[in-house]
Amino acid sequence: MAKTILIVDDSSSVRLVVGIALKGAGYTVIEASDGRDALSKLTGQKVHLIISDVNMPNMDGITFLKAVKALPAYRFTPVIMLTTESQEEKKREGQLAGAKAWVVKPFQPPTLLAAVEKLVLP
Fold first, then answer.
1. Structural domain for 46, as ranges
2. Which positions carry 4-aspartylphosphate (predicted)?
3. Cβ partners under 8 Å of residue 65, min gap 6
């Protein structure tokens, strides 16, 4: 059965590019436009990985990450932050909140897929 990945990004073009790469690799994709939208889509179904932007309206990626880690069903779900942010301080903040990887935009789909394959839950 295909593994499910949640993409959280306020840019529809980023969601599209990431979605095409993931679907091409055989994953099922759920899309959300920001952290609040993403939380509303985490309804207990199995999500094997989350890819989230950092800078988004309504709820940013770090706040979303902390909220996900507080949900018993998703606390062990690996999260990759996909963002334009490359400062060490932001990366550290993301790691402390529970991010497993940090991919800086613009990204190469093979680089992202390599991170996904390493981290996606069995």
1. 4-119
2. 53
3. 52, 79, 81, 94, 97, 98, 99
- Encode pLDDT of 53-87 as tens digits: 999 999 999 999 999 999 999 999 999 999 999 99
Q: How many domains is the chain partitioned into structurally?
A: 1
Q: For residue 6, which of 116, 114, 84 has the smallest C-alpha distance?
A: 116
Classify burial at 80, counting beta carbons within 10 Å of its beta carbon; exposed 0-12, middle 13-18, buried 19 or more: buried
Residue 100 pLDDT exceeds 90: yes
What tokens were used for 23? Answer: 């679907």
CATH number at residue 88: 3.40.50.2300
What is the distance between the alpha carbons of residues 92 and 71, in angstroms, rounded to a whole number? 22
